[in-house]
Every structure is written in C-alpha cells, then in structure tokens.
Write a structure and sequence with these properties.
The complex is a heterodimer of chains A (311) and B (382). Chain A has 311 residues and is of the alpha+beta class. In chain A, 26% of the residues lie in helices and 40% in strands. In chain A, helix 2 crosses helix 3 and helix 4 crosses helix 5. The mean pLDDT of chain A is 84. Chain B is an all-alpha fold and 382 residues long. Chain B has two domains: 163 residues, no CATH class; 140 residues, no CATH class. Chain B is built from 17 helices and two strands. The longest helix of chain B has 41 residues. The chains are: A alpha+beta (311), B mainly alpha (382). The interface between A and B is large, with 46 and 50 residues.
Chain lengths: 311, 382
C-alpha cells in the first residue's frame, strides 16, 4: 500500500478536480456541437412530407438531409451544384459580382426546373453567402417556415423558401466594354477594363450614357448599380432620365426620375457595394442614365454594371 | 458446474498474476466505454457538423451501391462494413456512432501500451485515463468524424515505431502513418517528424556499418521531404489553399496567431484554475525532461545510449510545439479583402485533440515525477 501511496494521491487529485471539469466541458461541448445541427432532422422530415412527387428541393449540406431521410436521395440538389453551374468557386475573396452571377444562375434554374422549395442555412457557406446582406435582384424568395430551436446554445436555423419572383432583368448595362455613346463633363478621365468603367475625377463631374429601356408599359422597376474600387472621398448620385416627350433622345421636355441613388462612403471591408432603388409608376421609357460625382480632391470609382428589373 | 466456475475464477486469477496490466486495461475499458455511452445517453441529439454525415453518407453508398468513397476511403469503408454487420440491432445512424466508440477503445489500449513501456502500468493508466477523458476527444468519439480513426492510426504507428518486432516497425509503421495522414494531413508534420527522430535514433543505435546508417537515414529523409512535392501532395495542397507553404509561413507565422492557437490548446476546461494548473504542469514537464536529459548527458557523455521509450516525453513535447506551429501556419482560415489576407482567428476545435493528447501526457508525467520525488524524499528521511 505504501508503495502505491503516490498513485493513490495522483488518482485522488485527478478525480476530485480535473476529471469532473473535463466531463462537464465534454457534455457542454457535445450539447453545443449537437445543437448546431438540431434543426436539420425536423427540416428533413418537413421536406419529406411536403415535397411534391415530381418536385426537387435545393438544400444546404445535402448529405445531411440524405443521411437523416434516405427517401430524399435523388430529390434534392445541393447549393454547391448551383455554384458549379454558374462557374463560380466558393473562395475567400468572392466579390458581389460573383454572388450576383450565382444568384442570376439560380434564378434561371428556378424558372426552368420544377423546384418545390429552397432551404437556406447559415452553416452552409454555399447557401449562406448567396443570401447574406440584402441583395436586390430578380431572385425573390418567399419564406414558408423556419426551423429554429430555442436554446442557450447557438443553432443553425434552416429556413424554407419558395421562389415567387416576377422580377425579370430587362436591361443590363455592363461597363467592362466602352459604350457606343456617352458624354462627360468636368475634370474626368474614363477607362474601361474587366472591372468596369474606372472613373478618375476631381470636383463635380458627370458621365451620361444614352440607353433605351422600354419601360413605358411597366408599373414599377428596380434599378441596381454595382460599384467597386472607390476612393475614400468619392460621393455622388446615379440618375435615371425619362423620355417624356417621346422623341427617343434626351432633351426638350424630358425629365429625370427624381430618383437618386446616393453613393455612400467607401465600404470599410470589401471595397465594393451594390446599390438598389425601386422606381414606381414610371409611365415613360428610360433614355439615359447619368452618374454624377463630386469630391474635393482627386477621387476614383469603378462602375461595374447598371441593371434594370421589372417588378 | 461449481467446479467449472471455480476453475474459471482461478484462471482469471492466474492471468492477472501473469499479466497484471489486464486489470488496468479492464478498468480503462470500463472508463472509456462508460464515459462515451453516458455522453450518448445524455446528448442523443444529431451528430456534429457536416462531416459526420458526409462520412456516414459515403459509408451508406459503399454498402448500398458499392461506390468507393472519395474522401478517407479506408475509414468510410470500415464504417460501411460496421453498419452492414450491426444495423440489425438499431438505426444505422446510432450503429455508426458505436463504430467510433470502438475505435476510441482500441486507441485507449494503444496509448496505454505506449505509456506502460515508459513508466509502467500505473502511470499508463493515469495518463491514458486523462487522455481518454479529454473533452474534445470524448465528444468526437460519439460522432462519425474521422479524427478518432486518425488518432488510432497515429497511436498504432507510434507503437510500431518503438516495437522491437522488425516486421511491425518496418512495415506496420509506414502503413499506419500513411493512413493517419490520409485522414488528417497535418499529421504529416506533427507525427512525421517525431517518427523520423525515433527511426533516426534506432538507426544510429543499431550495429550496422556507419556507411549503411548514413545511406538509410539520407534515403528516409529524402523520401519524407519529397513526398509533399509529388503530384498527389501538390494536388491535395492546392485544393485546400491558394498559397504555397513558404508563403503561408510568411503570412501566418505571427505572434498573435501563435498565441491564439496556444490558448485554444491549453483551454481544456472552462475552469481557469484547472487550465492554469495544466499549463504549469506542462512547463514543469518541460523542465523535468530537460533536467533528465542534462543529467544523463553529464553522466554518460551522450544521450544516445538510452532505450527509445526514455525519449517518449520528449517526443510528446515535440508534438505539442509542432502542432502549435502547424496549426498557426497551415490550418488557419482566412479572407482576402482588397488584396489583403486577413486570418479568421478561428481554429477548428477538432485539431486540438492531437496536441492535447501530448499535453495531458506531459501533465501526467510531471505529476508523476513530482509525487515520485516527494515519495523518494520521504523514504530517504525515514
């Protein structure tokens, strides 16, 4: 017994303090980790009961759904397939441009295939990245139900959506190539590259690009402007001009919409921003878009694209 | 009937006398299995994260469609076979969880075997119990993650590396080492370097000619260094990251990242006193190991004339320090904003299973040595 005194001491020391603490930590950690996925079983069961016979669903982490409900095999599509279809890799430096490309592909896919539901989870980066922030485009989803556990532990809600969008892209002005016609005023220098139209300017300047959007018969429009590579002092507005006198060109009795998109200060993290604005009861065709900029010192901004959607 | 029972009891007594380790192994098995089953009963919720289901799905596809799994196929195939055999007893998702529990049980035997070679059964039992109750390992052994499989293979390779049986040390070690690396690629550095040191020591100590020793050592080092440059290694590396290893060292080897990783490794429980005690024991372990080597070097003039198991604490230290460096540089997530790489300062907690195994070993060693010193001191006094 004397020989084993030290062993007994060690075991007692461990048993009295370390082991219970480690056990508590293990239980807490297991609870926490298990809770992250706690909404998936319920969401998978819901999907089995609600997905129509010939319908498919787009889901995050498809293997989880397949493992929980083997009946779903062959009836679910992972979000990663949508990214693959759009030709975009999920990466640390995905831009808004990449996200928009995947969303555009998803919207087309939803129109072509018989998709019953779209399930979104923050835990799955392929679905989370598409729906973080408030991106306004043709992809409009209607929330059906959210699976969320009330718990002290963080869990990953699974939200079920339906695709209900009547939004359609009706005009896309991508500025990686020089437009056929445009004019500028003020101290301004323009160049065109794959990032878009790079504007270097000082003071108050404007770029005006004649376009034609057949919007007279449309009730409402959504305008989105994708800006990047902004210098700190770059400020301004995007203005839309309407063909009130019906002559197909800017001038005479034509007016601007009064809809201004104010360009905010340089975004702190990713140097890019997607602005959007709804234009209601338009009644006329759009014949010009203008980018009016001002700044006290030499400034720079790049306009990637200007897109109009019917809503 | 009574006589048969008596004979059986007599035989058990005989075996315990001949193999005293059996009692400790039995106790260890009870602790390992009971803790896991208890945890499963307490937290019967879903498995963790995406990967558990991914391996389960691969295993299911293997048994139902004969599809060879693409990721960690050995683990997934074994899991599939396990499910195929035992699914008559319960739901496949439950059956699958007992597969990793069984792997942990095997791992506990392997850790025990390694530790008993160093300081005997009682130390081995203490160290292994500590390691088996480490919260993250305990937690991940009830879900179908491949971390426990990697741990088991790593322990097998360490056992083979110190084995006196030539077939195990020359064939068994490389196979199990590769299986461990296949599951967890970071083990190529963290386990690979200690294994190289063990083999270098064994080769230096062997009675072969000096020329042959140098040739074998150079050959081994060349194979180890060139393997990551093979098409397989390159393909793996560049699917995980866009940076080459040297660039990653330049980007991520920063004091704040090393500090972050070290904190993660040493925050074993949520009780600060215990974490600090563990860190203190680790530091004491460092000093004791350094002192032991200095003493032996002074006495013998070199440290080579010792058994390989004498070096086990040193290898454990190397594992801890290599883990800190490897996790800081190669496993840290990042975002790129405006061309600048910003580390996520987030380490997947599963990674810490490996360094914590070594930390707890050192803790047990330090505790053991302190108490032995006190006991010796008392004995000398009386």
């Amino acid at each position: 017994m004397k020989d084993h005194l030290e062993i007994l001491l060690v075991l007692l020391a461990l048993a009295s303090s370390l082991l219970p603490a480690m056990w508590d930590e293990a239980v807490n950690f297991t609870y926490g980790s298990s809770y992250i996925m706690s909404n998936y079983p319920e969401a998978a069961r819901w999907l089995v009961h609600n997905l129509g016979d010939n319908e498919l669903a787009i889901v995050p982490s498809s293997v989880v759904f397949e493992a929980l409900e083997p009946e779903l095999k062959g009836r679910i599509i992972p979000f990663s397939d949508i990214w693959k279809g759009a030709g975009v890799f999920l990466a640390a430096d995905n831009t808004i441009g990449h996200i928009l490309a995947v969303r555009r592909y998803l919207a087309q896919y939803l129109r072509l295939e018989k998709i019953g539901y779209i399930l979104v989870s923050r835990n799955d980066p392929y679905s989370a990245r598409l729906f973080e922030g408030e991106i306004q485009d043709e992809l409009v989803l209607l929330k059906i139900i959210e699976f969320h556990s009330e718990s002290l532990f963080w869990n990953d809600p699974v939200t079920v959506y339906e695709f209900t969008s009547t939004r359609r892209e009706i005009f896309n002005l991508t500025l990686s190539a020089e437009p056929a016609k445009y004019h500028t005023n003020g101290n301004i220098n323009l160049s065109f590259n794959e990032s878009g139209m790079a504007i270097h300017y000082e003071g108050e300047v404007g770029v005006y690009i004649p376009i034609f959007v057949n919007s007279s018969t449309m009730e409402n429009l959504l305008l989105t402007v994708y800006l990047k590579e902004m210098s700190l002092g770059a400020k301004g507005n995007v203005v839309v001009y309407l063909d009130k006198d019906g002559d197909g060109r800017w001038g005479g009795w034509d007016v601007d919409t009064g809809v201004l998109i104010e360009i905010p200060q340089k975004p702190p993290l990713r140097n890019e921003i997607l602005l959007s604005q709804k234009i209601y009861k338009i009644s006329y065709n759009i014949i010009q878009v203008g980018i009016v900029l001002y700044g006290t010192s030499p400034e720079a901004i790049t306009v990637d694209s200007i897109i109009f959607y019917e809503i | 009937m009574k006589r048969t029972m008596f004979l059986k009891a007599e035989r058990i007594g005989y075996y315990l006398k001949v193999y005293p380790s059996l009692l400790w192994i039995l106790l260890l098995s009870i602790i390992t299995i009971f803790s896991r089953v208890m945890l499963l009963v307490l937290v019967p919720g879903p498995m963790f994260y995406y990967d558990s289901y991914y391996y389960f799905s691969q295993a299911s596809d293997f048994i139902s469609k004969g599809l060879i799994p693409s990721d960690d196929p050995v683990f997934s195939i074994l899991l599939g076979l396990w499910i195929a055999v035992f699914r008559v007893f319960s739901d496949p998702l439950i059956v699958a969880r007992f597969f990793t529990i069984t792997l942990t049980l095997i791992t506990s035997f392997l850790v025990f075997n390694l530790a008993r070679k160093f300081l005997g059964d009682e130390f081995a039992f203490t160290a292994t119990t500590l390691i088996m109750l480490e919260p993250i390992l305990l937690s991940f052994s009830i879900t179908t993650h491949n971390d426990v499989f990697a741990m088991m293979n790593a322990m097998l390779s360490l056992n083979f590396a110190v084995s006196q049986r030539r077939i195990l040390s020359t064939l068994g070690m490389p196979v199990t080492f590769l299986l461990a690396v296949w599951s967890k690629p970071f083990l190529y550095i963290v386990l690979g370097i200690p294994l190289i040191l063990i083999y270098a020591y064994r080769i230096l100590k062997s009675k072969k000619s000096r020329k042959l020793k140098i040739v074998v050592l150079l050959f081994g080092l060349t194979v180890y260094s060139l393997a990551p440059l093979s098409p397989f290694g390159q393909q793996y590396y560049y699917t995980q990251t866009r940076f080459d290893p040297i660039t990653k060292v330049k980007i991520f080897l920063r004091p704040e990242i090393i500090q972050f990783v070290t904190d993660k490794i040493f925050l074993i429980t949520n009780i600060n006193f215990i974490n600090i005690t563990s860190q203190a024991l680790f530091i004491v372990g460092n000093l004791l190991i350094a002192y032991a080597f200095a003493k032996r070097f002074k006495r013998n003039g070199n440290v080579v004339n010792q058994g390989i198991t004498e070096f086990l604490p040193l290898f454990m230290l190397i594992i801890v320090y290599l883990s800190i460096l490897t996790f800081s540089v190669f496993t840290m997530g990042y975002r790129i904003v405006g061309g600048t790489v910003i580390p996520d300062m987030d380490l997947s907690i599963r990674y810490v299973i490996w360094p914590r195994f070594a930390v707890l070993w050192i803790n047990a060693f330090a505790l053991w040595e302190i108490i032995s010193i006190i006991a010796r001191h008392r004995a000398a006094e009386t």
